[in-house]
Amino acid sequence: MEPLARSYLYAPGHRPEIVAKALTGEADVVVVDLEDSVPADRKAAARESAVAALRALAPPERARLHVRVNPIAGDVGRDDLRALAQAGPTTVRLPKVTGADDVLTAAGLAGSELRLSCLLESAAGVEHAYAIATAHPSVVAIGLGEADLRADLGVRAEAADAGLAYARSRVVVASRAAGLAPPVQSVDPQLSDLDALERSTRAGRDIGFFGRSAIHPTQVRVINAASLPSAAELDDARALLDALADDAQGVLPDGRYVDAAIVEGARRVLAWAGEGP
Questions:
Q1: Which of 41, 88, 97 is closest to 69 using CA atoms?
Q2: Torsions phi, psi for 177 (to 5 deg)
């Protein structure tokens, strides 16, 4: 099993030199941003640059380049999808998705070439998480845009862990129920406290997220390390599976009773690190 991507580094679409530099770095995925980081008068240029970047990459590298488009509620976002559909297969981050209708509209514009990763950034989006996750076969992931969601809910940044706990669990459950990969954590806009970034990334993994978006290269190494199991977790998972061999359940030498769910958890830990079948 191939390991899941750990880090997703945003790069402004109207700055192709930054996109190119990001692709030489440690991020597992580079997300060309056509939305928030691009001035209104540079949207078309950013779109053209993203298409050119995708067409210039061979398939192995191309898989590392995703694109965040503008919301499809406006003409700019729809033009983004039409252009990317002509550039060949890629994964598109679709912002501000509020329901299944948004997904169906996007899928109609994207055709068969684009995979959709839907960002839920409002109360309506969170409320319809499972409907969004199952709206169309092109949906490969859902996740939260926490800054916009906090604004919509009236949650202060200092109270995000409490105020967004339900929304975070909702997207984890909806992703699992829909058979999708675990959701990716939203960005941490605080660049000066990398210790806090590590702690919150590990906490996110503990509640069912995997990997995290980044807005600066300095965050990438921290996210990569924090997303992976510790050496102790890996050793425990290997020992558990070795002790049980082909059995789905049993009693370990240390006296722990292990059932099928715990075995599956151990396999998942190894899969995060790229081990296992």
A1: 97
A2: -65, -30
7-227 placed in CATH 3.20.20.60: yes
Which residues are 68's β-sheet partners? 33, 93
pLDDT digits (tens, 9 = 90+) for 71-128: 999 999 999 999 999 998 999 999 999 999 999 999 999 988 899 999 999 999 999 9
Q: Give the contacts of 10 (CB within 8 A, at least 6 positions apart).
A: 31, 33, 37, 68, 187, 213, 214, 215
Where do the domains of the chain lie? 7-227, 231-272
Distance between CA atoms of residues 265 and 77, nearest Å: 39
Distance CA 92, CA 66 (A): 6
- Residue 161 is which amino acid? D
The residue with tokens 């995060």 is: 272
Stated pTM of the model: 0.87
Other Cβ atoms less than 10 A from the Cβ of 90: the count is 22
Nearest to 72 by CA among 124, 34, 129, 42: 34
Query: Any bridge partners for residue 29, and if so which?
Result: 8
* Structural contact between residues 165 and 144, judged by C-beta atoms closer than 8 angstroms: no
